[in-house]
Design a protein that fits this description.
Blueprint (H helix, E strand, L loop, with lengths): L5 H8 L3 H9 L7 E2 L5 E2 L2 H15 L4 H12 L5 H35 L9 H6 L12
Antiparallel strand pairs: 1-2
Helix pairs in contact: 3-4
């Protein structure tokens, strides 16, 4: 059975060794076996899991969602309806974020168009940032 060092697993999955250790510490990846020298050793199934994690993270799934996805992926008794529900929930959140980013770009574009961009100190962009741009969309942090 072939084993891989953390550097090899990182190269194969596109994740950094630090991320791999972090996923292992969070329980998303089983604890790696160790060589006699104490180095982490990964197997093919671990690389498969790392690729799954990398793909899910690339699609923007949170760690909590990733944990649920991994549980579903590893559960051969799962229903595809559970997976679809999770994916559709994530799609809705992504679309909401995309709309927020689009609205932010529109607002900033409007302010930039109002700015002369000359040597004068008057700047509509800075004036626009002095007050709430859209008070109804503000969240308390």
């Amino acid at each position: 059975m072939k084993t891989y060092t953390i550097s090899q697993a990182a190269a194969h999955s596109g994740l950094s060794p630090k991320m791999i250790r972090d996923y292992e510490a969070k329980g998303l990846l089983p604890a790696a076996s160790r060589s006699e020298a104490g180095y982490r050793l990964y197997q093919d199934r671990d690389l498969h899991t790392l690729l799954f994690i990398a793909q899910a993270r690339e699609l923007g799934f949170s760690l909590k969602q990733l944990e649920a996805l991994l549980a579903l992926w590893q559960n051969k008794e799962r229903s595809s309806a559970q997976v679809k529900k999770l994916a559709e929930s994530h799609i809705a959140a992504l679309e909401q974020k995309a709309q927020q980013l689009h609205d932010m770009a529109d607002t900033l574009r409007t302010l930039a168009q109002q700015c002369q961009g000359d040597e004068q100190p008057d700047c509509p962009i800075l004036r626009g940032l002095e007050k709430p741009l859209n008070p109804t969309s503000r969240t308390n942090t």
